[in-house]
Amino acid sequence: MHLGRWIDSLALKIRDGPVPMPNETDMLIEYWKEHRAQARQSENQRATISNLVLVIATALLVIIAQKGLMKTGFFLTVPLLILGSFGMLVSAKYYERAEYHIARARVVMDAFVSPGNAAIMQAADRMHKSNYRILRHVRVYALWIILHGLIAVTGLILTVILMIGE
Questions:
Q1: Dihedral angle at the C-alpha atoms of 41, 46, 51, 52, nearest 10 degrees?
Q2: How many domains are there within the chain?
Q3: pTM (whole model) above 0.85
């Protein structure tokens, strides 16, 4: 159950009479679920913004390619630079928010993992690390920031070309 809905239902029960308090385990599980959902929402929002930035950047580049750089001028190259910079910032911020919620959920999860299950999880981690020795070091958030950075650099290069050409 979503934590907000649980609190609303609890408020209704309190109004209607005495309510037994949920046990600490149930509360921690709801806390874990809420933070995992918030982390997922941050990633979904990052993906949505990134897709929007890519679509707009593509449209600007298509217009520049069709009409020519000198005809479109700074009206399209500067927004491309700003758009790429914005995408970098938003990607970094949503990564930070997702990590915040994942860290909180991880603390709760660690409290519930028994030593036997911890050993199983560590074995799975070792297997994953051995299967992906190089790729596991590549961070997805860094790839998104690089992609947006390339959009910003493209806008910068096109702007400099326009400045030199004048």
A1: 100
A2: 1
A3: no
